[in-house]
Amino acid sequence: MIIIPAIDIKGGKCVRLTQGDYDKENIYYDDPFEVAREWKRLGVKYLHLVDLDGALKGRRINEEAIRKIADLLSVELGGGIRNIENVDEAFSYGVSRVIIGTAAVKNPDFVKEACNKYGDKIIVSIDAKGGMVATDGWTKVLDIKAVDFAKKMKEAGVTNIVYTDIATDGMLQGPNIKELIEIKNATGLKVTASGGISSIEDIEVLKKENFYGAIVGKAIYEGKIKLEDIL
Prior knowledge:
Layout: E1 2-10, E2 13-18, E3 21-29, H1 32-42, E4 46-51, H2 52-57, H3 63-72, E5 74-78, H4 84-92, E6 97-100, H5 102-106, H6 108-118, E7 122-129, E8 132-135, E9 140-145, H7 146-155, E10 160-165, H8 177-187, E11 190-194, H9 200-208, E12 213-216, H10 218-221, H11 227-230
Parallel strand pairs: 1-4, 1-12, 4-5, 5-6, 6-7, 7-10, 10-11, 11-12
Antiparallel strand pairs: 1-2, 2-3, 7-8, 8-9
Helix pairs in contact: 1-3, 7-8
């Protein structure tokens, strides 16, 4: 299982939001690049990078920081990826994989186009509340079961998804193991768990259940987990 530390960039700084709420942010570091450099020193190989400004404004805001970090580590980039031009642009920064979120729900053909062009370098992020798909910065919960949507994404050519249970994100109370196992077993996709991971025990459970990866963010920043221990 791959441990994937998360850096969310907003206003050029390294922040974490609670349950995706832009009004509930904690600023942890002024320079995301310095965080990435320290993590590389500790042995990190892969990074989950989200441009929160890009997601909010629909255009790339933190290009310089993204380029610098992508030159340092392998990066999967999300935030504001809404069309194939955005995907092309992201790859031009040197990132390894691109994450499509809300746009995957609104335009499945876009996902198919991206997968046809870039193959397994395309990841779909599925955010869910009560097992139902949520979009638009988690402000809208749709009448679509997350597991059904994941199957649809598999048909479009997706091999790898990030699954986030909104209720657990940033809460440091453990991931929603039940939902994660359900979606992994129902689809056969590579599933990266995101949201709520708060202890080495959480990591051990995910590894035991053969998840592809685990994204860890707030628990590292808050000192709940030492990155070197889980690596």
